[in-house]
């Protein structure tokens, strides 16, 4: 082989490596895009109006750790959350009740998760938290056996 042919092959290899890197980054952004968008929105709101949040280095450190943990869990479990909502149903001095709704994809199987969370408070501290009315919906005809298992 002559030097020109080697140079052409090396250039092609470098071009393919760059393309692989770009596709990998694009895939990761697509996989974790919604969660990252939500976190970026929170960060942007905080930067725009920091007065409306309690600003301390501890909270910033805590946020960074939570982001790191969340990213790790998404990579580890291969669960990507797409939508999240929390609705306050009841609030009193003794009890707070929320309704949660999550949707996402796990191993290419779309799902929805709904549950009610009740926090019982006594003497200004959380004594316990109870999850009730758990409902898991799997939106896949291919996974009918899995859907039957989850519905049990």
Short description:
The chain has 152 residues and is of the alpha+beta class.
Task: Give the topology, please.
Blueprint: H1 3-48, H2 57-77, E1 79-91, E2 95-106, E3 109-122, E4 125-138, H3 144-151
Antiparallel strand pairs: 1-2, 2-3, 3-4
Descriptors for this entry?
about 50% helix, about 150 residues, elongated, four-stranded antiparallel beta sheet
How many helices does DSSP assign?
3
Number of strands: 4
Give the amount of beta strand, in percent.
25-35%
End-to-end gap = 66 Å
Q: Order of strands across the widest beta sheet? A: 1-2-3-4
Q: Would you kindly provide a written description of the structure presented here, covering whatever features stand out?
A:
The chain is built from 3 helices and 4 strands, in the order ααββββα. The chain folds into 2 domains: 1-77, no CATH class; 79-152, no CATH class. By secondary structure, the chain is an alpha+beta fold. It has helices at 3-48, 57-77, 144-151; strands at 79-91, 95-106, 109-122, 125-138. Strands 1-2-3-4 form a 4-stranded antiparallel β-sheet.
